[in-house]
Write a structure and sequence with these properties.
The complex is a heterotrimer. By secondary structure, chain A is an alpha/beta fold. Chain A is 33% helix and 27% strand. Chain A has 7 helices and 10 strands. The chains are: A alpha/beta, B alpha+beta, C alpha+beta.
């Protein structure tokens, strides 16, 4: 699914160069749920930006879904982001002026789907996150957990092969956080590859694999104990171990 | 997709009504002020006889004082704008021009004989019968008069539509009688609405005068020993005791026009005039270097500076004002767009290409442009009402015609697009990753 | 307040600053040149006519038949007009100052025409009581006697005496007493100067020396009546005067009487309108620029919310924040003014060469500069005050 070889990223600010990533190597297989952890400044966000094609690496090779995307231009990268990648952000990043359905609609618009196709996908995605009844609400009218679920619906509506989550529970209380994590696990179980950046070891443990970043490099592979199976079911979503 | 961008633009307009109205207002003011002055300029510099203005010529004979130029400009070489009686009469003998007419302006006291109403002073053009076909004057009833009537100073009159309405209730009045300065005249024709702008054939009374109410043969006021109401300029110290002295004097007071349909015809007439001037030199006249001019209508209007310096100055200032409004709009749009960078970052992350972002903001810019244009149009309309009320003689002048409406909206959209270019480019170049972390 | 850090921040975010500076520069060029034109027109319009134009009504009665006794008709009309309650004096006159129609004639100071110097005199032809009607003061010599007035058609002679305006008399005779001296027409006729009066302006607007005017004792049948009234009666008398002139002879053409002030206003109408348009453009330019400053200053405050919060958190007082923004704005305005100075003179130079406009008088410059500084500071004051209200706690919030 994702294969990074010798990826480097250098930010130049005046005369000072900052090496955010140094020769990072990582392979993620289709259907995996990978948590990327590491302390502040370890390069987590840069990794995610490069993985999500928001930034280009300074060097190295990045294969996504069998394509070498490291040298893609802006347009091609936009297309890949739109078709193959779904984003979930810590701050949800919903568009405040658009209602829930229209927020989920945003990537579908850029995809160029027909009206009926978009409607079908919006319905499906909102159904999945259990917010069909709120489709006409504005983001500000929802709780944080609900907003993040809308963001997840938006990320999933285009049927991406890869879901990138950046501290998806960082702005949520623990109950809501757990619901969001349950949802991510269910999505992973349906076959979507997920890479999640987090500094929370508790969350990381629920992923299938942990990658630890330190100073812009993968430091160590940590074999994981299987996450505890939970039967928390208040949203009608069952986590699958 | 356009519908989608229209919706987004509308949401954005609604979200920031104050900022949006400021932008629309700035564009509207810029458009309003520049279109008001542009319309004035457009009308002032318009062609009063578009179908044949390059074939109709003002005749200028250089009979002026050899020692003291009439005009300071052109190194003082320009001939006077009017002709003397004796020269005009000599030129009228030529049958080279397709049509030719000397003319003067004068008031006549008019009334119907029957009613005891007080006479009314009506603006009258005394000219040759050729005036009507030469200037394509439209007739409602009857026609002008022929050369015989010209030669015999027949007491015939052509009425304007307004006067025919007033004296004859709009009926066909050909053959009816009208008293002018106490003498009976026979109506031979009634012209339809006719108001060349500018009033090119006689600029004495103001560049944008009404056309005359009555037309009579040129020799009528001459036989009555009338002077013209326009300007009479004399330079030569000569004894003028009688009207005959005046007619033979070097005073210029007549307008003289000729229609010359081909270059050959024009050259022939120019040669005729120059030969006449050289002939007259033997009598001690035409003392200046040979500079007799045939100016077509647009050249003539330029020579007479019908578009005043005031109007040009206003145009310059108005377009500087528009530039200021545009700079203003650029600043406001930039502020608005950059404020929105995080949301654009989200859209970029979700797969919008740069071009998508450019289109989204381009649509918004155009909407602001169109709204600014419409508001600007309203302002120009109001501005022109003000101009009409402030300037005497501009009543028929300062109107928005369809061409100007289209140009106003075009100018507004163009201005908005120009103003939106840089902000749109800037917002399309943002780094999405930078804006996704912060809230 | 140190300027260097503000300046370096400005230089790093220059787009907004450049936009404002350009606006101010263009605004300055427009305002200075417009104000200059306005002042120039005002000066022209402020010149006095030398006659009591506020209290004069002008009326015309045109006779088309020629076999008439001019003197008796004028006397009949005059006594009818004088009998109207509120009319103080009536004169027959060829034209009035600033009516934009009149005549002038060239004279020489010497009977040997070529030896003398030539000068052009506008002339008013009028009667023996015109000093009272027009409100003129005879300064030297005397005004015309009744028996000197030539009536035309009829009398068939040409007057040989003139009264000059003070200013032009002094110029022609170089301060010597003009009374009893002669001037000569281009045909060599000698005209005696019998008096001078307080200077009267020319009939035309913007043509010829303002006060090179003269009076001649001559009355034609179709000259206008100048009617002097008390100010409070003026407008009320207009229809009465018209009726009176019509009633005396229904066959003649009586134009609607006008006040002299109205005639002057018509002559100046283009200048008045031009000044109005320029004033409006000036006002709009300044307000648009002020609004632009408000908009961009608000934006720059909004963008620096957190930075301002941090400054406050580390101990900046409210007035520090306020002065930071005001100084920043002042720097931008000043940059614009410097550019505007260059632009103003460039525009003026272009206008002077292309059109007939006088050169820019730098006297007004400091005033415009002060004005623009004030506008800039006032416009920035609102957003800057808002910035002082930012909560220092914002700095410590994570999102």
């Amino acid at each position: 699914m994702l294969n990074m070889q010798d990826i480097t990223k250098v930010y130049a600010a005046g005369l000072i160069e900052t090496h955010a990533l140094r020769s990072l190597n990582l392979e993620v297989k289709s259907g995996e749920f990978v948590a990327v952890t590491g302390p502040s400044g370890s390069g987590k966000t840069t990794f995610l930006n490069i993985a999500g094609l928001l930034e280009s690496p300074s060097g190295g090779r990045y294969m996504l879904d069998g394509e070498d995307v490291s040298s893609f231009g802006d347009n091609a990268r936009s297309k890949i982001r739109n078709e193959k990648i779904g984003f979930i952000f810590q701050a949800f990043n919903l568009i405040p002026d658009l209602n829930i359905a229209d927020n989920v609609d945003v990537p579908l618009r850029y995809r160029g789907f027909s009206g009926s196709e978009r409607k079908r996908r919006i319905d499906e995605a909102l159904e999945l996150v259990g917010l069909s009844s709120r489709r006409n609400h504005l983001p500000a009218q929802l709780s944080g957990g609900q907003q993040q679920r809308v963001a997840i619906a938006r990320a999933l509506a285009g049927d991406p092969a890869l879901l990138l989550a950046d501290e998806p529970t960082g702005n949520l209380d623990s109950l809501m956080a757990r619901q969001v994590m349950d949802l991510l696990e269910e999505i992973n179980a349906r076959g979507t590859t997920i890479i999640m950046v987090t500094h929370d070891p508790e969350l990381a443990r629920r992923a299938g694999r942990n990658v630890h970043l330190l100073d812009g490099q993968v430091s160590d592979f940590q074999p994981l104990e299987p996450p505890p199976a939970e039967a928390d079911d208040d949203d009608g979503v069952r986590s699958v171990a | 997709m356009t519908a989608y961008y229209l919706k987004l633009a509308w949401l954005s307009v609604r979200k920031n009504p104050l900022l949006t109205s400021l932008m629309i207002g700035a564009i509207a003011l810029g458009i309003g002020v520049s279109m008001t002055t542009l319309t004035l300029y457009h009308v002032m510099s318009s062609d009063p006889l578009p179908q044949k203005s390059d074939r109709v010529f003002a005749v200028q004979l250089d009979t002026w004082n050899p020692d003291d130029p009439y005009y300071e400009r052109d190194e003082g070489s320009a001939p006077p704008p009017q002709t003397t009686f004796r020269d005009s009469m000599a030129l009228m003998e030529s049958d080279i021009p397709t049509h030719q007419a000397a003319m003067l302006h004068r008031g006549f006291a008019a009334r119907l004989d029957e009613d005891g109403a007080r006479p009314e002073r009506l603006s009258t053009r005394a000219t040759y019968g050729d005036f009507f076909p030469m200037f394509d004057v439209p007739f409602l009833f009857g026609s002008g008069w022929d050369r015989n009537a010209d030669d015999r100073a027949e007491r015939v009159v052509v009425l304007s539509k307004r006067i025919n309405d007033k004296f004859f209730g709009g009926e066909d009045s050909v053959g009816e009688r009208l008293m002018l300065d106490g003498a009976p005249f026979t109506v031979v024709g009634v012209i339809d609405e006719w108001r060349p702008i500018p009033h090119f054939y006689d600029l004495n009374g103001g560049d944008f005068d009404d056309s005359e109410e009555l037309f009579v043969p040129f020799q009528v006021p001459i036989s009555l020993e009338y002077h013209a109401d326009g300007s009479t300029n004399c330079w030569k110290p000569e004894r003028i005791e009688s009207y005959q002295d005046f007619l033979q004097s070097e005073c210029v007071w007549l307008q003289h026009w000729a229609q010359l349909d081909s270059d050959a015809q024009r050259e022939e007439f120019q040669a005729f005039i120059d030969a006449y001037a050289l002939e007259q030199r033997k009598l001690g006249r035409f003392g200046r270097p040979l500079d007799n001019r045939l100016s077509d209508i647009m050249t003539w209007l330029e020579f007479r500076e019908v578009v005043s310096d005031d109007n040009r100055l206003l145009m310059v200032l108005a377009f500087m004002f528009l530039a200021i409004c545009l700079l203003n709009t650029i600043g406001l749009m930039l502020a608005k767009f950059i404020n929105r960078a995080p949301l654009v970052g989200v859209r970029r992350a979700l797969g919008a290409s740069r071009f998508d972002i450019i289109r989204q903001h381009g649509v918004e810019v155009l909407i602001i442009g169109v709204m600014g244009g419409l508001a600007g149009l309203l302002l120009s309309w109001a501005g022109l009402i003000a101009v009409r009320s402030w300037y005497r003689g501009y009543e028929y002048l300062a109107h928005l015609d369809p061409a100007m409406v289209v140009s106003a909206i075009g100018l507004a959209v163009f201005s908005a697009a120009l103003a939106g270019l840089y902000p749109t480019w800037r917002i399309s170049r943002i780094q999405p990753a930078v804006h996704l972390k912060a809230q | 307040m140190e300027i260097r850090p503000i300046l370096s921040t400005l230089l790093r975010n220059k787009t907004g600053a450049i936009l404002i500076a350009l606006q101010i520069a263009l605004t300055m060029a427009v305002v200075i040149n417009a104000a200059f034109v306005i002042a120039d027109r005002r000066d022209t319009m402020a010149k006095t006519t030398g006659v009591d134009d506020g209290n004069l009504i002008l009326a015309r009665a045109l006779q088309t038949d020629r076999d008439i006794d001019v003197r008796s008709i004028v006397e009949r009309d005059t006594s009818a007009l004088m009998s109207i309650d509120g009319v103080q004096k009536v004169s027959k006159i060829s034209t009035v100052p600033l009516s934009n129609s009149g005549s002038s004639q060239t004279f020489s100071t010497s009977a040997e025409l070529e030896d003398g110097s030539w000068f052009n005199l506008a002339y008013y032809q009028t009667d023996a009581v015109a000093t009272e009607t027009l409100g003129l003061e005879v300064t030297r010599g005397r005004w015309f006697r009744d028996d000197e007035i030539v009536y035309n058609p009829g009398d068939g002679e040409v007057p040989r005496v003139k009264v000059l305006s003070d200013a032009v008399a002094d110029e022609i005779f170089e301060g010597e007493d003009p009374i009893g001296k002669f001037i000569y027409t281009s045909r060599g006729d000698a005209i005696e100067i019998i008096g001078t009066i307080s200077s009267v302006g020319r009939p035309w607007y913007n043509w010829g020396e303002l006060y090179s005017t003269s009076f001649t004792p001559f009355v034609e049948i179709n000259y206008m009546y100048a009617i002097r009234t008390a100010p409070e009666n003026r407008d009320r008398l207009i229809p009465i005067i018209e009726e009176t002139l019509v009633a005396l002879d229904t066959d003649r053409l009586v134009g609607e009487p006008r006040t002299h002030s109205e005639v002057i206003a018509r002559t100046y109408s283009r200048d008045v309108a031009m000044n109005r348009m320029l004033t409006i453009v000036m006002a709009l330019v300044v307000s648009i620029t002020a609004l632009g400053i408000v908009g961009l200053a608000s934006f720059s405050v909004a963008q620096r919310h957190r930075q301002i919060g941090t400054r406050r958190a580390v101990g900046a007082r409210r007035h520090h924040i306020l002065s930071y923004f005001l100084v920043e704005n002042w720097l931008i305005t000043t940059g614009g003014i410097v550019l505007g100075l260059v632009l103003s003179f460039a525009l003026n130079y272009w206008l002077v060469t292309k059109y007939t406009l006088p050169k820019l008088d730098p006297v007004a410059l400091p005033l415009v500069v002060l004005g623009l500084w004030a506008v800039g500071l006032l416009a920035a004051a609102g957003p800057a005050r808002k910035a002082t209200g930012i909560d220092p706690a914002i700095a410590t919030r994570t999102v």
